[in-house]
Amino acid sequence: xxxxxxxxxxxxxxxxxxxxxxxxxxxxxxxxxxxxxxxxxxxxxxxxxxxxxxxxxxxxxxxxxxxxxxxxxxxxxxxxxxxxxxxxxxxxxxxxxxxxxxxxxxxxxxxxxxxxxxxxxxxxxxxxxxxxxxxxxxxxxxxxxxxxxxxxxxxxxxxxxxxxxxxxxxxxxxxxxxxx
Length: 180
Prior knowledge:
180 residues, alpha+beta, Nucleotide Exchange Factor Grpe, Chain A, domain 2, three-stranded mixed beta sheet
Protein backbone atom coordinates (compact mmCIF):
# COMPACT_ATOMS: atom_id res chain seq x y z
CA UNK A 1 0.00 0.00 0.00
CA UNK A 2 1.13 3.52 -0.62
CA UNK A 3 1.10 6.34 1.85
CA UNK A 4 -1.08 9.16 0.51
CA UNK A 5 0.54 11.82 2.72
CA UNK A 6 3.88 11.74 0.88
CA UNK A 7 3.83 13.73 -2.33
CA UNK A 8 4.91 11.79 -5.44
CA UNK A 9 8.57 12.21 -6.52
CA UNK A 10 9.01 14.02 -9.81
CA UNK A 11 12.37 13.15 -11.37
CA UNK A 12 12.39 16.39 -13.36
CA UNK A 13 12.43 18.49 -10.22
CA UNK A 14 15.61 18.72 -8.17
CA UNK A 15 15.43 17.48 -4.64
CA UNK A 16 15.87 20.37 -2.26
CA UNK A 17 18.95 20.07 -0.09
CA UNK A 18 19.75 21.99 2.97
CA UNK A 19 23.20 23.48 3.04
CA UNK A 20 24.62 25.14 6.07
CA UNK A 21 24.77 28.86 5.84
CA UNK A 22 26.86 31.19 7.89
CA UNK A 23 23.73 31.96 9.82
CA UNK A 24 23.12 28.28 10.58
CA UNK A 25 23.01 26.94 14.06
CA UNK A 26 26.45 25.15 13.91
CA UNK A 27 28.47 26.56 16.79
CA UNK A 28 31.88 28.12 16.05
CA UNK A 29 33.55 25.63 18.43
CA UNK A 30 32.40 22.73 16.22
CA UNK A 31 33.79 24.47 13.12
CA UNK A 32 37.11 25.05 14.88
CA UNK A 33 37.16 21.42 16.00
CA UNK A 34 36.56 20.23 12.42
CA UNK A 35 39.26 22.58 11.10
CA UNK A 36 41.68 21.23 13.68
CA UNK A 37 40.84 17.63 12.75
CA UNK A 38 41.26 18.46 9.06
CA UNK A 39 44.66 19.99 9.75
CA UNK A 40 45.70 16.89 11.72
CA UNK A 41 44.55 14.56 8.95
CA UNK A 42 46.31 16.68 6.33
CA UNK A 43 49.53 16.53 8.36
CA UNK A 44 49.13 12.76 8.77
CA UNK A 45 48.66 12.35 5.02
CA UNK A 46 51.79 14.43 4.33
CA UNK A 47 53.83 12.33 6.75
CA UNK A 48 52.49 9.13 5.24
CA UNK A 49 53.41 10.31 1.73
CA UNK A 50 56.90 11.26 2.93
CA UNK A 51 57.30 7.87 4.66
CA UNK A 52 56.16 6.10 1.51
CA UNK A 53 58.60 8.09 -0.61
CA UNK A 54 61.43 7.19 1.80
CA UNK A 55 60.34 3.55 1.70
CA UNK A 56 60.43 3.53 -2.11
CA UNK A 57 63.97 4.97 -2.05
CA UNK A 58 65.02 2.38 0.54
CA UNK A 59 63.60 -0.51 -1.51
CA UNK A 60 65.29 0.76 -4.67
CA UNK A 61 68.61 1.05 -2.84
CA UNK A 62 68.18 -2.49 -1.46
CA UNK A 63 67.41 -3.77 -4.97
CA UNK A 64 70.54 -2.10 -6.36
CA UNK A 65 72.63 -3.49 -3.53
CA UNK A 66 71.30 -7.01 -4.07
CA UNK A 67 72.05 -6.74 -7.78
CA UNK A 68 75.55 -5.47 -6.99
CA UNK A 69 76.24 -8.34 -4.59
CA UNK A 70 75.04 -10.85 -7.17
CA UNK A 71 77.13 -9.30 -9.92
CA UNK A 72 80.22 -8.87 -7.77
CA UNK A 73 80.00 -12.46 -6.53
CA UNK A 74 79.85 -13.85 -10.05
CA UNK A 75 82.62 -11.56 -11.30
CA UNK A 76 84.84 -12.47 -8.34
CA UNK A 77 84.62 -16.09 -9.48
CA UNK A 78 85.57 -15.12 -13.06
CA UNK A 79 88.66 -13.08 -12.08
CA UNK A 80 90.97 -16.08 -11.52
CA UNK A 81 90.02 -17.31 -14.99
CA UNK A 82 90.94 -13.92 -16.45
CA UNK A 83 94.28 -14.02 -14.61
CA UNK A 84 94.96 -17.52 -15.95
CA UNK A 85 94.15 -16.40 -19.49
CA UNK A 86 96.62 -13.55 -19.15
CA UNK A 87 99.29 -15.95 -17.92
CA UNK A 88 98.54 -18.33 -20.78
CA UNK A 89 98.80 -15.50 -23.32
CA UNK A 90 102.35 -14.71 -22.17
CA UNK A 91 103.44 -18.33 -22.74
CA UNK A 92 101.83 -18.98 -26.12
CA UNK A 93 104.60 -17.89 -28.45
CA UNK A 94 105.06 -21.41 -29.79
CA UNK A 95 101.36 -21.81 -30.79
CA UNK A 96 100.31 -21.41 -34.39
CA UNK A 97 98.52 -18.17 -35.34
CA UNK A 98 95.04 -19.71 -35.59
CA UNK A 99 95.11 -21.14 -32.07
CA UNK A 100 96.57 -17.96 -30.63
CA UNK A 101 93.87 -15.86 -32.34
CA UNK A 102 91.15 -18.09 -30.89
CA UNK A 103 92.50 -17.75 -27.37
CA UNK A 104 92.94 -13.97 -27.85
CA UNK A 105 89.27 -13.74 -28.93
CA UNK A 106 88.11 -15.54 -25.77
CA UNK A 107 90.26 -13.24 -23.64
CA UNK A 108 88.80 -10.16 -25.37
CA UNK A 109 85.29 -11.44 -24.59
CA UNK A 110 86.18 -11.80 -20.92
CA UNK A 111 87.73 -8.31 -20.88
CA UNK A 112 84.60 -6.87 -22.55
CA UNK A 113 82.40 -8.56 -19.94
CA UNK A 114 84.44 -7.02 -17.13
CA UNK A 115 84.35 -3.60 -18.77
CA UNK A 116 80.57 -3.86 -19.24
CA UNK A 117 80.22 -4.31 -15.48
CA UNK A 118 82.60 -1.45 -14.70
CA UNK A 119 85.36 -3.74 -13.41
CA UNK A 120 88.81 -2.16 -13.58
CA UNK A 121 92.30 -3.34 -12.72
CA UNK A 122 93.94 -1.72 -9.71
CA UNK A 123 97.03 0.22 -10.68
CA UNK A 124 100.10 -0.96 -8.82
CA UNK A 125 103.68 -0.57 -10.09
CA UNK A 126 105.14 2.78 -9.00
CA UNK A 127 102.02 3.70 -7.02
CA UNK A 128 102.01 4.35 -3.27
CA UNK A 129 100.88 1.42 -1.17
CA UNK A 130 97.22 1.63 -0.14
CA UNK A 131 96.00 -1.13 2.23
CA UNK A 132 92.47 -0.74 0.84
CA UNK A 133 93.59 -1.83 -2.64
CA UNK A 134 96.83 -3.75 -2.14
CA UNK A 135 97.92 -6.82 -0.17
CA UNK A 136 101.62 -6.82 0.68
CA UNK A 137 103.36 -10.14 0.21
CA UNK A 138 106.82 -8.83 1.11
CA UNK A 139 109.14 -5.85 1.03
CA UNK A 140 112.16 -5.32 -1.14
CA UNK A 141 114.57 -2.68 -2.36
CA UNK A 142 112.88 0.39 -3.77
CA UNK A 143 111.26 3.66 -2.75
CA UNK A 144 109.68 3.45 0.70
CA UNK A 145 106.00 2.38 0.66
CA UNK A 146 105.91 2.34 -3.14
CA UNK A 147 104.86 -0.76 -5.04
CA UNK A 148 107.83 -2.23 -6.89
CA UNK A 149 106.36 -5.52 -8.14
CA UNK A 150 102.95 -7.10 -8.70
CA UNK A 151 102.32 -10.82 -8.20
CA UNK A 152 98.56 -10.85 -8.86
CA UNK A 153 96.34 -8.21 -10.36
CA UNK A 154 93.69 -6.60 -8.22
CA UNK A 155 90.24 -5.51 -9.40
CA UNK A 156 87.63 -2.98 -8.35
CA UNK A 157 84.03 -2.49 -9.39
CA UNK A 158 83.05 1.13 -8.96
CA UNK A 159 84.74 2.00 -5.67
CA UNK A 160 84.49 -1.49 -4.15
CA UNK A 161 87.47 -3.83 -4.13
CA UNK A 162 86.64 -7.23 -5.60
CA UNK A 163 90.15 -8.59 -5.21
CA UNK A 164 93.16 -6.72 -3.78
CA UNK A 165 96.36 -6.69 -5.80
CA UNK A 166 99.14 -8.83 -4.31
CA UNK A 167 102.32 -6.76 -4.35
CA UNK A 168 105.88 -6.21 -3.12
CA UNK A 169 106.44 -2.83 -1.51
CA UNK A 170 109.71 -0.89 -1.40
CA UNK A 171 111.49 -0.74 1.96
CA UNK A 172 113.46 2.44 1.27
CA UNK A 173 116.74 0.75 0.35
CA UNK A 174 118.23 1.61 -3.03
CA UNK A 175 117.93 -0.88 -5.84
CA UNK A 176 121.02 -3.00 -6.40
CA UNK A 177 122.92 -2.02 -9.54
CA UNK A 178 122.63 -4.57 -12.35
CA UNK A 179 125.42 -7.17 -12.35
CA UNK A 180 128.00 -6.77 -15.10
